[in-house]
C-alpha cells in the first residue's frame, strides 16, 4: 500500500477519485492500493517557550536559542493558556497509522515552500522513516494530476526546499519570540509584538504616514493656454511655476495682450511598449487592489478557490514566465476563452500564428510558472471570482499580443519670452493595448490629440487662465503600493524591467505577503482609511520605539530572503543561516532590552472610582492599580480602539468625544459618546438628531 498525503481534504478527494480510492473512512479514503489522507494546513509547528520550560517574560532567560528545536502539535487558545488542538491530534493519529501500514508515501501537499514544510514537520514529528516521493503539479486538472503521477520525483530532490522552509520558520521564531519579549520587558506596559518581516513592513507604513503628515504643502501657479487648429482643441502649460500669485496674474495680462503663441520646437519619437508579462501572485494582488479594492488576503483566497475548482494554475507563484515545454498548450487556453462572454470580443483581436513568446523563459520560472487559466471553462462563479478569473485571462491575452507602438510628440511654444509645453500621442500599432482598449495607464495623465505642427507656426490663444496648484506629499500606501514596496525592499522603482531584475530581493515572498499585512491588522498596528493603510496609535508607538533599531532594516530582511532562496537551490548552507539568525536575535534582544521607553507620553490619570490610585494604561485595557478597587475599562469597543485622549476625557470629564464607526452585533455601523455612569460603569450616549436643512 501507498499513502498519499494532501494539504487539505478537498485536494485529497480530487486525487482519490482519479486513482479509484473511493472507499470513505474516518480521516482518509482508500482503494486500488492507496490510502489518501490529508493535513489541515500546519498540524505541527515549532514549540513555544513553555515547551522548553520557560514561562512568562523574563529578562534572565533571553535570548532563547533552542538547541534542538522542539516540534509540537498545533495549539489553540483555551481560556488564558494554549492546549493541543483535538482535531489536529485525531488527524495526526490517523496519518501515523496509515504511514505504518504503508510501504511508501507520496507527498501531495501544495508544491511550494510551505507545502513542503507541512509534510516534513509531520514526517519528522512522527519519526517516520518510510521512503517518500513528491507529486509536483501546478494545476489540479485531471491531466495535470495524471502527468504528475507519471513523473513522481524523489523526495530527496526537495531537501533544499525543506531546509529553506525550515530556515524561514526558525528565523521567524528566533526573531519574533526574542524581540517581542525583549521590547515588552523594556516597555513594562503590555505586549509589543515584533517580527522578522512584520516589523520592517510596519516601518514602511509608519515612515510614509509621517512623511505625508509632516509634509509642508506649498502653493504655486501655472498658466494654461487653450488653442484650436484643424478642428482640434488642445492645451499647453507654462514651464514656469510662479510662487507668487500676483506675478502669475501680471504675466497672464501680458499674455492676453499678445494673444499669439509661436511654436519653437516639435520633437516626435516612436515609443514601443512591450506587453506585460503574466501575473505572479503579488502582481495579481496589486491589480485587484487597484481595480477592485480587494485586500491582498481576499485576492489570495479567491485565487486559491479558483485553483481548487481547477480554473487556474497554482496561485502562490513568484514567476511571470512559463517554461518552453508549456508553449504548445497556450493556443488551447486561448481557444477555451472563445465561449466566455466577457472574453469573446478580446479573443477576436488575437493574431493567431503570431503569438508573442516574451513570457517563455526557462531560467525565470521559479517553483511554479506564471499564473494561467486552465482549459476548463468556468461555471457558477461568484462576482469576485469572475472578476479575478477575467483579470488572469485578459493578462494572458495581453501577454501574447504584439507590442504597442506610439508616436509621442513634445511641442514647445513661446509667448512673450515664456515657454509653454504640450504633448500629443498617436497610436501607430495598438498591439496588446487593443485587448482592453485602454491606451494609457490609469495612473498617468491622458495624452491629447494634436494637429500637425512645425517650428515657426503661429497659434492663436483662444483662452488663458491661471491654475492654482499645490505640491503633493508622498502618497499614503494602499495595499497595492505596500505590496510594491515589499516586492522591491522599499526602493521606489518605477521601471518594470528594473523592478523585475530586483524582484528577488523583496521582503516576504508572494505566498506570505498577504499574511504579513493581515498580521499587522490583527495586532492593531494598522487600519484602513478609505483605500489607504495608516498606522494606529499603537503602531506608531511601536515604530517610535524601534525605528533606530536593526529590526526595522528592510534591506537586511530582503537579504535574508535571498539567502533562503540560495538554500532552496542548494547554493548555501542552512546551518550557517541559522547561526547568523541566532546571532542577530541575540543582538536585537540586547538592543531592545536597553530601549529606554519614555512613559511620560502616557498621561498620569487617577482612578475615577477610588480617587486615590493611579490608572495603569495598557493597549487593551485601562485599570486601577489597586486590585481591591478593581475599576477597569476595555479599550476596544465595538471594533474601535479608544484613543488615550478619549480615555483622558472619560476619566476627567466623564464623557469621550464622539466615537465614529463602531459596529453593533448585527454588523451595523454607529457613532456614539462613551459616558461614565454614577456606578462607574460605562454606556453609550447617542447624538441628538440634528434638524435637517431644508
From TrEMBL:
CDD domains per record: TOP1Ac (cd00186), TOPRIM_TopoIA_TopoIII (cd03362)
GO BP annotations listed: DNA recombination; DNA repair; DNA topological change
Reaction it catalyzes: ATP-independent breakage of single-stranded DNA, followed by passage and rejoining
Domain Topo IA-type catalytic stretches: 158-589
Alphabetical list of Pfam families matching this protein: Topoisom_bac, Toprim, Toprim_Crpt
Toprim domain mapped to chain residues: 1-141
Keywords attached to this entry: DNA-binding, Isomerase, Metal-binding, Topoisomerase
GO molecular-function term, one example from the UniProt record: metal ion binding
Sequence similarity: Belongs to the type IA topoisomerase family.
Protein name from the UniProt record: DNA topoisomerase
Source organism of this protein record: Paenimyroides viscosum
Amino acid at each position: 500500500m501507498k499513502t498519499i498525503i494532501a494539504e487539505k481534504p478537498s485536494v485529497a478527494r480530487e486525487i482519490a477519485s482519479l486513482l479509484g480510492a473511493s472507499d470513505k473512512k474516518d480521516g482518509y479514503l482508500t482503494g486500488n492500493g492507496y490510502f489518501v489522507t490529508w493535513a489541515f494546513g500546519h498540524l505541527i509547528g515549532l514549540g513555544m517557550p513553555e515547551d522548553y520550560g520557560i514561562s512568562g517574560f523574563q529578562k534572565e532567560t533571553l535570548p532563547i536559542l533552542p538547541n534542538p528545536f522542539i516540534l509540537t502539535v498545533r495549539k489553540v487558545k483555551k481560556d488564558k493558556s494554549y492546549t493541543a488542538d483535538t482535531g489536529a491530534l485525531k488527524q495526526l493519529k490517523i496519518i501515523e497509522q496509515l504511514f505504518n501500514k504503508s510501504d511508501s508515501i507520496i507527498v501531495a501537499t501544495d508544491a511550494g515552500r510551505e507545502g513542503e514544510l507541512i509534510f516534513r514537520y509531520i514526517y519528522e514529528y512522527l519519526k517516520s522513516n518510510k521512503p517518500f516521493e513528491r507529486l509536483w503539479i501546478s494545476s489540479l486538472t485531471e491531466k495535470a494530476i495524471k502527468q504528475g503521477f507519471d513523473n513522481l520525483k524523489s523526495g530527496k530532490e526537495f531537501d533544499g526546499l525543506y531546509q529553506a522552509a525550515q530556515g524561514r520558520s526558525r528565523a521567524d521564531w528566533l526573531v519574533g519570540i526574542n524581540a517581542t519579549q525583549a521590547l515588552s520587558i523594556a516597555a513594562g506596559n503590555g505586549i509589543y509584538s515584533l517580527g522578522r518581516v512584520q516589523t520592517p513592513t510596519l516601518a514602511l507604513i509608519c515612515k510614509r504616514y509621517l512623511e505625508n503628515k509632516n509634509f509642508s504643502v506649498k502653493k504655486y501657479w501655472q498658466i494654461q493656454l487653450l488653442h484650436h487648429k484643424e478642428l482640434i482643441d488642445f492645451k499647453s502649460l507654462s514651464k514656469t511655476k510662479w510662487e507668487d500669485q500676483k506675478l502669475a496674474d501680471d504675466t497672464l495680462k501680458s499674455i492676453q495682450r499678445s494673444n499669439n503663441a509661436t511654436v519653437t520646437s516639435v520633437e516626435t519619437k516612436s515609443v514601443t511598449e512591450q506587453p506585460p508579462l503574466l501575473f505572479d501572485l503579488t502582481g495579481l494582488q496589486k491589480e485587484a487592489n487597484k481595480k477592485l479594492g480587494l485586500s491582498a488576503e481576499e485576492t489570495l483566497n479567491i485565487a486559491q478557490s479558483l485553483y481548487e475548482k481547477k480554473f487556474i494554475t497554482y496561485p502562490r507563484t513568484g514567476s511571470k514566465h512559463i517554461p518552453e515545454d508549456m508553449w504548445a498548450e497556450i493556443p488551447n487556453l486561448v481557444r477555451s476563452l472563445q465561449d466566455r462572454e466577457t472574453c469573446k470580443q478580446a479573443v477576436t483581436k488575437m493574431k493567431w500564428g503570431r503569438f508573442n513568446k516574451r513570457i517563455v523563459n526557462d531560467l525565470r520560472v521559479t517553483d511554479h510558472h506564471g499564473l494561467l487559466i486552465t482549459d476548463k471553462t468556468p461555471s457558477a462563479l461568484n462576482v469576485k471570482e469572475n472578476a479575478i478569473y477575467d483579470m488572469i485571462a485578459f493578462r494572458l491575452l495581453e501577454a501574447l499580443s504584439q507590442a504597442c507602438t506610439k508616436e509621442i510628440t513634445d511641442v514647445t511654444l513661446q509667448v512673450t519670452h515664456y515657454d509653454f509645453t504640450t504633448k500629443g500621442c498617436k497610436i501607430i500599432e495598438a498591439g496588446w493595448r487593443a485587448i482592453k482598449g485602454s491606451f494609457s495607464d490609469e495612473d498617468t495623465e491622458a495624452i491629447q490629440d494634436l494637429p500637425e505642427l512645425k517650428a515657426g507656426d503661429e497659434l492663436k490663444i483662444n483662452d488663458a487662465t491661471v491654475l492654482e496648484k499645490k505640491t503633493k506629499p508622498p502618497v499614503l500606501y494602499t495595499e497595492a503600493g505596500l505590496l510594491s514596496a515589499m516586492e522591491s525592499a522599499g526602493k521606489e522603482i518605477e521601471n518594470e524591467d528594473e523592478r523585475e531584475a530586483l524582484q528577488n530581493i523583496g521582503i516576504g515572498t508572494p505566498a506570505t505577503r498577504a499574511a504579513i499585512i493581515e498580521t499587522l491588522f490583527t495586532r492593531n498596528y494598522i487600519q484602513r482609511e478609505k483605500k489607504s493603510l495608516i498606522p494606529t496609535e499603537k503602531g506608531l508607538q511601536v515604530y517610535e520605539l524601534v525605528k533606530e533599531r536593526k529590526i526595522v532594516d528592510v534591506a537586511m530582511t530582503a537579504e535574508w530572503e535571498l539567502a533562503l532562496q540560495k538554500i532552496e537551490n542548494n547554493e548555501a548552507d542552512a546551518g550557517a543561516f541559522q547561526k547568523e539568525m541566532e546571532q542577530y536575535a541575540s543582538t536585537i534582544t540586547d538592543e531592545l532590552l536597553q530601549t529606554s521607553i519614555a512613559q511620560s507620553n502616557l498621561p498620569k490619570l487617577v482612578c475615577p472610582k477610588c480617587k486615590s490610585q493611579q490608572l495603569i494604561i495598557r493597549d487593551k485595557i485601562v485599570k486601577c492599580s489597586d486590585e481591591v478597587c478593581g475599576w477597569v475599562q476595555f479599550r476596544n469597543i465595538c471594533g474601535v480602539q479608544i484613543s488615550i485622549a478619549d480615555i483622558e476625557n472619560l476619566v476627567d470629564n466623564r464623557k469621550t468625544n464622539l466615537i465614529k464607526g463602531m459596529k453593533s452585533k448585527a454588523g451595523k455601523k454607529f457613532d456614539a459618546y462613551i459616558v461614565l455612569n454614577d456606578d462607574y460603569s460605562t454606556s453609550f450616549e447617542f447624538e441628538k438628531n440634528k434638524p435637517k436643512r431644508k
